[in-house]
Amino acid sequence: MSSRSSSSRSSARLGRSIALHLFLAPLALIWLFPLWMMVIFSTMPDRGIFSPSIELLPHGNFLDNVSNLQRDTNFIGAIGISVSVAVTYTFLSVLLTSMAGWALARYQFFGKGVVVAIILGTITLPYAVVLIPQFIMVARDFKLANTWVALIVPPLFNSLGVLFMRQSFSMMPGDLFDAARVEGVKEWRIFLFVALPLARPMLAALAIILFLASWNNYLWPLLINSKPGAMTAPVALGTLIGLTKVSWGGIMAGAVMLTVPMLVVFVLLQRHFVAGIAAGAIK
Question: Where would I find the ABC transmembrane type-1 domain in this sequence (predicted)?
Fold first, then answer.
């Protein structure tokens, strides 16, 4: 009797799994189709992109489009700048948000609730509200336009990252840190060698989110950096859109070069991403 009931439960689970996949497969195809068409367009000449016929198979102009893109924008150099900025920004932002989250989670101080409320309030502000004042302060007052400092430092503070790490550190057992303090371990060593290793999944998820945010950032680098030789990759792609000519093949080739590596990295690291988000959401 028990074997029959377990068999029926297995059949029910199998049926639900098949139904779920039948429902999700078309949605996945709808999501993947624009990416596939981006790849197709990157292999076509400019005039072929606007062909009335629908092309679903790659052509042979990808290398030509990449060559034209490199000639017009020095795109390989722009990718190098984007990688350097994104890696530096991610490291510093993860460190700062972790320190802020640790302080808000584990220390009691006057005005702590006000600080948390202010951080929550900054999330509700549209970026356009702070964009112009931030530009005036960085470019006019500090005279940091066209520098790496201007690209990296202003976006470092991430409200969601602070709250995410605060939640992560709040979930950890306080007795563990109290035991370390009893043993005479200094606070900075507790943070670096006890708290951060325990928060590794959450740190990995936060690092992926921040890296992608910096990698895709377009508006701020466009405003603060006007030197052609110091443009990030998204800004370099934007220069292909002119008043009388648009290099669609080059834009699509550059978009593929920017998108595909990030998709590969995300697929390889999705286990850490999902684990970190799940761990930070459960208390």
Answer: 79-269
| The two structure tokens encoding residue 112 | 């702590």
- Quick: pLDDT tens for 67-77: 988 998 889 99
pLDDT digits (tens, 9 = 90+) for 38-61: 999 899 887 777 777 778 888 888
Count CB atoms within 10 A of the CB of residue 106. 17
Q: Contact, 60 vs 43, CB < 8 A?
A: yes
Q: Which of 23, 28, 202 is nearest to 102 (CA)?
A: 202
**CB within 8 A of 163, min separation 6: which ones?**
101, 116, 119, 120
Whole-model pTM?
0.85
Cα–Cα distance, 222 to 76 (Å, whole number): 18
Coil, strand or helix at 145: coil
Give 54's DSSP letter: P
